[in-house]
Amino acid sequence: MIRVENLSKSFYHQQDESKILIDINLHIKRGECIILKGISGSGKTTLLSIIAGLDRPSKGKVLIDDEPISKLPDIFASKIRAKKIGMIFQHFNLFENLSVYENVTVPLIPSGLPLDDIYRAVDKSLKVANIYHKRSLVASRLSGGEKQRCAIARALVADPDIIVCDEPTANLDSQNSILFIETIKELHLMGKTIVIATHDPLFENLNFKSRIVPMFDGKIDE
Amino acid sequence: MNRAFWYFLSLQLFKERSKHLTIIVISILLIFILSSVLFISSSIRFSLEQTLKPQPDFVISRLQGGVNRSTPIEWSDELFDIYGVTKVTPRVYGRYFFRPKGKSFLIMGIDAFEEESHKSLEKLIDSIDIKAFLTGNNMIVGEGVKEYLQKNFYNNSYKFLTPKGKFIDIKIAKIVPKETRLLSNDMIIMPIDLAREVLGYTQDEVTDIAFNVPNPDEWSNIEDKLLSLHYDLGVVDKNEVKKSYETLYNYKSGFFLIIFLILIMTFSLILYQRYNMVYSTEKREIGLLRALGWSINDVLRLKFMESFILIVTSYIIGIFIAYIFVYIYNAPLLKNIFLGGQNLQNSVSFIPIIDIATLSSIFLLYAVPFIIAVIVPVWRVSVTNPKEAML
Ligand SMILES: Nc1ncnc2c1ncn2[C@@H]1O[C@H](COP(=O)(O)OP(=O)(O)O)[C@@H](O)[C@H]1O
Ligand SMILES: [Mg+2]
């Protein structure tokens, strides 16, 4: 499903090179749940953004279903991202002025689907994420847990195979974090491939099958 | 561009309207000021052209000590002898000062034998019987004259006092219609002999003599010939008249240059603000759209359409308000700047002239820099800060 091959990433400040990711190899199979575990600054976000085709590697490549997303021009990379990857962020990143419902439409807007099909997908996704009852509320009025569920509905709306989460519980209380893990379990049972970057110990003992990948200083200790 | 895209675009515009409000309001104001000035000046230019078109190519008069004196009518016979001269017309006109407030109006005499001027009069005022008009004590007055006379309770006629101390009662036969108001506003037209009496000319005197020279190559030649005929002959050609009219309206151009500079500065500030808005508030939004599967092109298209709609809206509203301001409310304040110091300035009203070419160039001059100020940073943010949404 996802193959990361000899991936390195450096940032440059004038002449100074800082190596953020160093020679990473990672193979994620379909339906697997990966916990990318590492302290802040270890390079998790950078790795996720390259997997999602948002950033380019300095060396190596990322294949998604054998397509080299990291090497494709933006229009193709965006298509793969739109179709196959749903993203959930640490700060939820909703459009605060839009309603829950409107927020969930966003990933499907450039899809070319007719508006009615989009509405149908949004309804379905809102129900799965258990936020349908709050659909007309403006995002800024939601509680942290509700925002998270709205973000989940948005990540699911295009029915992607892969769900990428960056520090999903960093802004949630423990109760909502446990609820989130329950949702992840459901998604796992639905057969989604899940990649979670986190340093939250809650993810260390999940009651479903998962693989913890420790990350340290831009390297993966496998 | 499908319905889903429009749906989201309308959401963006509507739900984020407070973000755009300052820019919209200032844009409307800028376009309003710019197009008001444009409307007024093209309206004035149109009126000028209208007045200049029927003007004669040349006018001669007796000039003594730099002052215009009454001109002997025999001079017109000498003109007939010059090759290339046509439409020789002796004219009688002059300013008449009214008693009550010291206001002055322009009296013009019409010759009973002058077919040409009859035709232009008929064109000016339909349903007028020229023959009947010329045989009685009648006058045709401009709108401004009528208003002034009515204010002083002369509704149907006015008793003019001649230089010889005699009163002549002259009836108002017609009022000049509005389209020609700018310059015939303060005009009184009457039979030529009446005009002579009111203005104090004898039977063989006129104010000046007008004529045409159809071949422009002959102009300077004929001018020289005329000047050699009489030591006290003064000659003015149409180009000089045109220039003097133009300076009448353009003398405030320094003022408009300042307005224009202020507009440009304000516009630059708007561009600057819009440009920075991308980096301050939209950077995250762009990164988020990208993370949710939007391509760079999708984001650019959204931002382009958003700016375009904002500009078109401001443009239409600005022009609309300017139109109402100039053509319906007669441009209070601005009018005084254009026509300040003119006689009867308050009864001048502007003829609606829409100069499409200039209006569209205003649009382009506004839209193109504005859209560039949005698209360039949006593109840069999309390309250089790809994981913005994830931080
Ligand atoms: N655009 C960038 N330019 C320079 N350095 C960056 C950039 N993005 C991230 N970094 C650096 O890379 C390191 C890893 O960042 P990140 O991937 O966000 O780690 P994590 O998500 O594990 O906290 C950090 O030291 C960070 O400062
Ligand atoms: Mg991070």
Q: Which spans of chain B of ≥5 residues are poorly predicted at pLDDT below 50?
A: none
Euclidean distance between termini CA atoms of chain A: 18 Å
Largest sheet of chain B: 6 strands, mixed
Helix content of chain B: 55-70%
Largest interface: A-B, 39 and 27 residues
What characteristic shape of chain B results from the CA principal axes?
Answer: elongated
Helix content of chain A: 25-40%
Which strand order spans the largest sheet of chain A, edge to edge or round the barrel?
5-6-7-3-8-9
Summed up, the helix count of chain B is 14
CATH topology name of chain A: Rossmann fold
Q: Can you describe this structure?
A:
The complex is a heterodimer of chains A (222) and B (391). With 222 residues, chain A is α/β, with parallel strands linked by helices. Chain A has a single domain, classed as P-loop containing nucleotide triphosphate hydrolases (Rossmann fold). Chain A is 31% helix and 27% strand. Chain A has 6 helices and 9 strands; from the N terminus they run βββαβαβαααβαβββ. Chain A has helices at residues 44-51, 74-84, 100-105, 115-128, 144-156, 174-189, and strands at 2-13, 16-28, 33-37, 59-64, 85-88, 162-166, 193-198, 211-216, 219-220. In chain A, strands 5-6-7-3-8-9 form a 6-stranded mixed sheet, with helices on both faces. In chain A, strands 2-1-4 form a 3-stranded antiparallel sheet. In chain A, strand 8 and strand 9 (219-220) form a beta hairpin. The longest helix of chain A has 16 residues, at 174-189. Chain B folds into 2 domains: 2-50 and 244-390, no CATH class; 93-200, Beta Barrel (Barwin-like endoglucanases). Chain B contains 14 helices and 13 strands. In chain B, the strands form 3 sheets. Chain B has a 6-stranded mixed sheet. In chain B, a hairpin with a 5-residue loop joins strand 8 and strand 9 (167-175). In chain B, helix 12 (296-328) runs antiparallel to helix 14 (356-384). Chains A and B meet through helix 1 and helix 2 of A and helix 1, helix 11 and helix 12 of B. Bound molecules: adenosine-5'-diphosphate and magnesium ion.
